[in-house]
What we know:
With 428 residues, the chain is an all-beta fold. The chain is built from 1 helix and 26 strands.
Amino acid sequence: MNSTFISMDVSNYYLFKTLNISFMKTRLYVFLILILVVSALSEVSAQGCVAVRQMGGNTICATKGYNLPKGEFQVGATYRYFHSWRHFVGSEEQKERQTSGGGHDENGKERGNAVNIYSHSVELNFNYGLTDRLQLNLALPYVHNERSQVFRADQNRTEATDTFRYSVYAKGLADIRLSANYWVFNPETAVKGNLLVGLGLKLNSGSYTRTGMVPIVEDDASEVTYERQTMDQAIQPGDGGVGFSLELSGFRQIYKGVYGFFAGYYLFNPRESNGSYKSDPTIVKQDGVTLDTLFGYNLYASPDQYFVRGGIMGSIGKKKNLTLSAALRAEGIPAYDAIGGQVAYRRPGYVVAIESGLAYTKGKHSFSLIIPYNFYKNRIQSAADIEQQKIRNAAIADEDEKVHVQGDAAFADYSINFNYTYRIGKLF
């Protein structure tokens, strides 16, 4: 795997929106659960080495309607977990990473060298109804991430010929988000469907330079020692960029208590690089001959993120306060940002997932559990891959000998997302 790490999740990143609709004297509790990106990738979500950050958690919910009325407050918390460990180049899984390249156990059996990421995040959400149609949101996320990988010493150093697995950690406050959401149609009359537009600001409050002790072997030594290095971008709490997001979502009654919904989100991160050091500049070689050096791609990027989702939901039970949902979703990190420079390192990629969910409302309390399963994973070519490929192929005359350069990344099979909200009402 490339020296960087993908964490999806597309960073994850889930925005849960809850809907409760009064229709024909029947209180229908409908939860429109939106994941507004992250990352990316993340880091996520498509969780893995693609650093899609968790970008959700603000919940639009009401026990007397699907909007948050003027002057009312709501608080909530979202917990997300994923474990990424399957490596992909493009859409092809590198299954050998699970069984080879990781040294040997006490019985001489060969072990795998796949990179593993374990991610836990908790996000506190605060919502306020400025009007019946305009809601203001604040999200305060905290993350605790672990990256487990295999150390491989140079085989020429006989004192460190085998490998061993070690872990590094990064935790702390992640990137704070502020956003505003507006219902296009009046919620008092639009009981069968509505559209929601949103504009957000992502701050760079999360650290992107967390460090840890990693094993190394000096050129003039045979023993393994440790030195402090900056952790991979996939487990960093933040990406270092100040960005803005655009969102569009909506729902529509299909038949009686069954509703269709959709959501789309894009995070623009104009900053080209956050300046944190990944590695030395890549020296591009072809058949042992040095062709060029890739400067700039040895610094981590502050990448864009995107997310789209659509599905159906419906309430069941006597009181209609239990809602089941199913959706198809895709999220990821593009190879190039929509705005800003492109010379920086990232692991771009995306996942497509099918998700199942359930939500329950009782009085002022709302709970939801969403589990997306990533059935398609794709680590696409990065800008660094494409640039290196151009340089190498420019030196090859025979078209049949042209090379394809593409790094790999690790993805999770699924994530677990639990959300709780409490309607405070008016405080003054």
